[in-house]
Write a structure and sequence with these properties.
With 670 residues, the chain is of the alpha+beta class. It has 2 domains: 330 residues, Chondroitin AC/alginate lyase (Glycosyltransferase, Alpha/alpha barrel); 322 residues, Beta-galactosidase, Chain A, domain 5 (Distorted Sandwich). It is built from 18 helices and 24 strands. The strands form 5 sheets. Strands 7-8-9-10-19-14-13-12 form an 8-stranded antiparallel β-sheet, with no helix packed on it. A 5-stranded antiparallel β-sheet has the order 1-2-3-4-5, covered by helices on one side. A 5-stranded antiparallel β-sheet has the order 20-21-22-23-24, with no helix packed on it. The longest helix has 23 residues.
Length: 670
């Protein structure tokens, strides 16, 4: 964690508060959450194609999906269709008259759906039905005051508070408790949540990973309603997240269009998104909302150009999202001239591409501190994509806390980083699951079995435990990207003295991965891992892995004396004499774990690998070479010469006639 981040948080929050717009009274007329009737009718005239698709969903009325109900309510409000509005009310009343749900269930989604129908179809609820909604809303909020209070956890934003907030504004003038509920939400956000977002979300990323695509969209819908109904700007209270979130989201997406014109977010932590689903539309709509808010900013105009390459939601029922949030009046930026990498300093995420073409080579690296439950034990992990996933994210999220989850999926062994095996090391219970495997990976030494900090105050109090990784260097002048990270504290100090990873991305396709590792005892076996999507085949001194239209060439250069093992088939989920197969398949996952270990046990080891992504038609790549020198490692790869420091971050790069230092500092992407 960057110390500067912690120092400036208070000043940033004060500045944001000073820039908040003036509040205004909540309008009395309905609808108001998504706009007035006149505003919605104007959108229907402006966005005719989107409105026609939404109307088609509404008029068919097939299925119980909330998107159908919302489409019905929107069309009813716009066209003043009493019959359609009444049928939408009847759908919502099934939830209103049902049992009060509480805890780790989606009660917030139910609240939000009913609130939107209440507001859009207000005239079609009887007085008694409105009272029933008020009672349902009040009792659900009261039952869940203690649910999901950890502000670093996705559920606090997604399925809880968008429903609480929308419900409060929907019945603001009819329900005496609504105003107090909204004030409590806002106070908790100001005091606990906004500082958490500023701490963990600087740069727009989120350490919890993939779950940001689930919770953020719903929360942003509430934020828009709060701005519209009362002039409360939640974005202004956490500018370090919301000012860069749309840009980060664009970089958190693999190149290329996939199923139904969708774009797949990269796997980070739990969730993965291997199979097509509506979460892809949520990511698109969240970017649209933030682009509309930041429409004068050139970076967000570039994101708008990116969004417009997928101009409609991939799930047909989600036409209502396109109707509300796709605003073609935003100026399109020049995406081709936009920078090719992004740093989210809060979660320690780096994303990079070779270009903005759909066939670009893609790279993701993470050196996250610890914040909450859905993170993995994967500091130093990286992904490589070209046409298809090449170096991926191992295991399956079969359920939270299963034997496979706690012994493989979230553990270091399922990621492209490093193992250091102390035979006597043990792990406590993780996610209330039974941990029996010693994979040699990163520790789980936090007070709570979910590894979660309750809020920023709790995180800072236990910073010595939660601050597990440091980004030492990052720069991207264009033809290459360089990063370095200290990952030592992610491991037990009883077995590891030092682990520093340096990576040079030589655009367009080559990656030099250099690791300096010192264990406390020479006999603690070190294993370098690569999660290969398919088993590779040997070709001379290289390994070659093909997946779909992509190919990865793997050159292992250090240690000079090493043992290479390919773990595949049923053995993939087996180690230490125990087997941890997934209970269900969640889509295409790495089928091979490449393990590289030194042939002789010593305390200090250097690992150096050169990975080259290519199209499947590429038959070979030039061999890379390495030479050990007293203070540096000299590497020749992809037309470049690197002199990488052996005892610290940094070094020198030569590209043609150009010689430049590799910065031992973190520079903003250009």
């Amino acid at each position: 964690m960057n110390n500067l981040t912690l120092i400036v948080l208070g000043a940033a929050l004060l500045q944001a508060a000073a820039s908040e717009p003036a509040r205004h009274p909540v309008p009395r007329e309905h609808p108001r959450l998504l706009g007035s009737r006149a505003e919605l009718q104007a959108l229907a005239r402006e966005r005719t194609a989107e409105y026609a698709r939404m109307t088609n969903v509404a008029r068919r009325e097939t299925g119980a999906d909330p998107a159908v109900t919302l489409s019905m309510a929107l069309v009813s409000a716009i066209e003043k269709d009493a019959d359609l509005g009444r049928r939408a009310c009847e759908r919502a009343l099934k939830l209103v008259d049902g049992p009060i749900r509480k805890g780790h269930v989606t009660f917030g989604y139910d609240l939000a759906l009913c609130a939107l129908v209440y507001d859009l179809c207000f005239d079609h609820w009887s007085a008694a039905e409105r009272d029933r909604f008020h009672s349902y809303f009040n009792r659900t909020v009261e039952a869940n005051r203690g649910s999901e209070t950890h502000v670093f956890h996705n559920g606090w934003y997604g399925y809880k508070n968008w429903g609480v907030g929308l419900g409060g504004y929907a019945c603001y003038h009819e329900n005496p408790q609504a105003a107090g509920i909204l004030r409590a939400l806002e106070d908790d956000y100001r005091q606990r949540a906004a500082p958490a977002l500023e701490l963990a979300g600087e740069g727009g990323g989120w350490a919890e990973g993939y779950y940001v695509h689930y919770w953020l969209y719903e929360w942003l819908v509430f934020c828009e309603a709060a701005r519209r109904c009362e002039g409360v700007d939640y974005y202004a209270l956490a500018p370090r997240l919301y000012g860069q979130r749309a840009v980060a989201s664009m970089f958190e997406t693999y190149p290329g269009l996939r199923e139904y014109g969708s774009r797949r977010p990269v796997p980070m932590g739990d969730g993965g998104g291997r199979l097509f689903g509506g979460d892809r539309d949520k990511a698109l709509s969240a970017r649209r909302i933030l682009v509309n808010y930041h429409r004068a900013d050139p970076a967000h105009q570039a994101v708008h150009a990116f969004n417009e390459t997928t101009p409609r939601s991939s799930v047909g029922l989600n036409a209502w999202m396109d109707f509300l949030w796709r605003d073609p009046s935003v100026v399109k930026g020049d995406l081709d001239r936009f920078r090719l990498s992004h740093l989210s300093a809060g979660p320690g995420h780096i994303h990079a591409r070779s270009s903005w073409n759909e066939d670009a080579t893609y790279f993701f690296f993470k050196s996250s501190d610890r914040f909450t439950a859905h993170q993995h034990l994967d500091a130093g992990h990286f992904l490589i994509y070209k046409r298809e996933e090449l170096a991926g994210d191992g295991g399956h999220y079969d359920e939270f806390g299963t034997p496979h989850d706690v012994n493989y999926h979230l553990r270091t062994i399922a990621h492209s980083t490093l193992l250091v095996r102390d035979p006597g090391e043990t792990w406590p219970g993780i996610r209330a699951g039974k941990v029996t495997g010693n994979d040699g990976g990163q520790h789980h030494a936090w007070p709570h079995h979910n590894g979660a900090a309750a809020d920023p105050e709790d995180w800072r109090k236990n910073r010595a435990l939660y601050d597990t990784a440091d980004l030492l260097a990052f720069e991207d002048p264009g033809d290459y990207l360089y990063l370095a990270a200290d990952l030592t504290r992610a491991y037990s100090p009883a077995k590891l003295r030092s682990f520093r990873r340096q990576i040079v991305f030589l655009r367009p396709d080559t990656f030099v991965v250099f690791d300096q590792v010192v264990s406390t005892r020479p006999e603690f076996k070190k294993t370098w891992l690569l999660q290969a999507m398919k088993p590779p085949e040997p070709r001379g001194e290289q390994w070659v892995m093909s997946h779909g239209q992509g190919r990865l060439f793997i050159q292992s250069l250090l240690p000079s004396e090493r043992r290479a093992t390919l773990v595949t088939g049923e053995d993939l989920y087996r180690y230490g004499g125990q087997h941890y197969p997934p209970a269900r398949n969640t889509g295409a996952a790495p089928e091979c774990r490449i393990e590289i270990s030194p042939a002789q046990p010593v305390s200090a080891d250097l690992f150096l690998h050169v990975l080259t992504a290519a199209d499947s038609g590429t038959s070979s790549v030039p061999p890379a070479t390495v030479r050990l020198e007293p203070d540096t490692v000299r590497v020749q790869a992809a037309g470049a010469e690197l002199l990488l420091n052996r005892s610290s971050a940094g070094g020198v790069i030569r590209l043609g006639d150009r010689r430049a230092p590799l910065a031992a500092s973190v520079l903003a992407p250009r």
